[in-house]
Amino acid sequence: MTSAPLAKPHTKEREVQLTSQDEVIIQATDIVKTYDTGKVKVEALRGVSLTIERGEMVAIMGPSGCGKTTLLNCLSGLDVVDSGRVLVDGADVNRLSDNRKTEYRARHMGFVFQFYNLLPVLSAIENVELPLLVSGTSARRAREKALAALDTVHLRDWASHKPGELSGGQRQRVTIARALVNDPAIVWGDEPTGDLDSTNANEIMDLLCDLNEKHDQTFVLVTHALEVAERTGRIIKMQDGQITSDHRIIDREAGIWGPAVQTEAG
Ligand SMILES: Nc1ncnc2c1ncn2[C@@H]1O[C@H](COP(=O)(O)OP(=O)(O)OP(=O)(O)O)[C@@H](O)[C@H]1O
Ligand SMILES: [Mg+2]
């Protein structure tokens, strides 16, 4: 695989240093997910295994319908697998009660999904502080943290604006601020730059790469855009519910890719 010149290289050194000694944060073993709509059965995931280490930034690519969103949903516990096992931070996601799962997600995960829409009647800051208020943070503390998160995405001056008064890129940054407000260990993105033009997409990726480097947060991003995927440290490709390739980027500028990532046996 070769790679085109990129806007800004990122965390090259750390990726090269990753070894099996690094801490595993997500481990999926042979996960299977079939949707049964009554008329047809769709095998959305057909035996997916993968290991992601803390602080990695991973892109998941593949044609429409190959199972990318289903994989994110199953790894994050939004959906349950039919068989196989998902460990997140050592905990078996499918064995947690719904309450524990919801609590775990609220505390440790952030979501930048397109269907996680902003509430139009709330201002930017109210949208961002919502997850904190839901998980019991005091109003004052929630406001402070939400302002800090908006600051991180360069939107402090837009805090009182409603989503309808913001551009697409600004709205997406509010979504990111909301995903980050709890300092999540893992951030899941399903087409986080999907609706944006290339300038805005690049800015969002600058931001995500920066957060990944500074806070060692783990990012798992589904994307159709190769220029987005190439900004991460690893590209997993899927087809028909299976992983078809999984490589770390060793030297992006030189177009050097690591050997296939080995998934440890669960
Ligand atoms: N809730 C559901 N009920 C029935 N089938 C579903 C459901 N969700 C997904 N599927 C099917 O599972 C397969 C994988 O869907 P998924 O949404 O994971 O694909 P994707 O790779 O994210 O596609 P896209 O790039 O278009 O978002 C598809 O064939 C889809 O029709
Ligand atoms: Mg999808």
Kindly describe this structure.
With 266 residues, the protein is of the alpha/beta class. It is built from eight helices and eleven strands. The strands form two sheets. A seven-stranded mixed beta sheet has the order 6-7-8-3-9-10-11, sandwiched between helices. A four-stranded antiparallel beta sheet has the order 2-1-4-5, with helices on one face. Helix 5 packs across helix 6. The protein starts with 11 loop residues before the first helix and ends in a 6-residue tail after the last strand. Residues 1-21 have low confidence and may be disordered. The structure holds adenosine-5'-triphosphate (ATP) and magnesium ion (MG). Magnesium ion binds at residues 68-69, 190.
Second-tier CATH architecture: 3-Layer(aba) Sandwich
Number of strands: 11
Mean pLDDT, all residues: 86
Number of domain units: 1
Low-confidence stretches: 1-21
- What is the H/E order? HEEEHEEHEHHHEHEHEEE
CATH topology: Rossmann fold
CATH H-level superfamily: P-loop containing nucleotide triphosphate hydrolases
Helix vs. strand class? alpha/beta
Compute the CA-based radius of gyration: 18 Å
Helix segment tally = 8
What spatial form do the alpha-carbon principal axes imply? globular
Strand order in the sheet with the most strands: 6-7-8-3-9-10-11
> Which range best describes the helical content: under 10%, 10-25%, 25-40%, 40-55%, 55-70% or over 70%?
25-40%
The first-level CATH class is given as Alpha Beta
* % residues in beta strands: 25-35%
